[in-house]
Amino acid sequence: MFVTSIFYDVHTYLIISFILTIFLIFKFAWGKITQSLQAKIDSVRSLIDSLEKQKKDAEEQMEILKRDLEEYKKIAETSVFNAQAEAKRISEKSYIIVESIISQKQEEYKEVISKIKDSFSIELQNRIIKLIKKELIKKMKESKDDREIQNISINNSTKMIEDIVERYANNC
């Protein structure tokens, strides 16, 4: 009676079909499933290795760029300092030249004035002296304007160099 009741029981067939399904899966499909999973694991590992290598390369490139940036900053600072020193030297030299020209012209005007004084009347001499003074003031203002233009040019050059350095630093 026990034997016949087992064959008529649904649960027995379920257990047998489950065991048969597990056996078939392990026999025919398990190797393909494990191969597929292993292939996915290998591709993920190779992707991780590739990303780590790219990260390492990027960090090396970043270090190289940082060193280059520091080097360029030093070069730019040196260039700015040299440009400022050269501009100051040129300004001082031009100032000395302008001063010597002014003093030379003043001496020439004094000689001209003394000659004129000797040859003209006092009223005429006074008029001429006023005109000469105006001319001297005008010449002095022109030379002062020239010096101011030179200083403005020097300041503009310095600012332009600083802007180039700043743009380069911002781009990096």
What does this structure look like?
The protein has one domain (9-171). Helix content is 97%, strand content 0%. It has helices at residues 2-7, 10-119, 122-171. The longest helix has 110 residues, at 10-119. The chain is rod-shaped, with a radius of gyration of 48 Å. The mean pLDDT is 80.
Task: Write a concise synopsis of the structure shown.
With 172 residues, this protein is an all-alpha fold.
Return the average pLDDT rounded to an integer. 80
Low-confidence stretches: none
Q: Give the number of domains.
A: 1
Report strand %.
Answer: under 5%
- The arrangement of helices and strands along the chain is HHH
Helical fraction: over 70%
Shape, per Cα inertia axes: rod-shaped
Descriptive terms for the model:
0% strand, rod-shaped, 172 residues
Task: Give the SSE map.
Blueprint: H1 2-7, H2 10-119, H3 122-171
Helix pairs in contact: 2-3
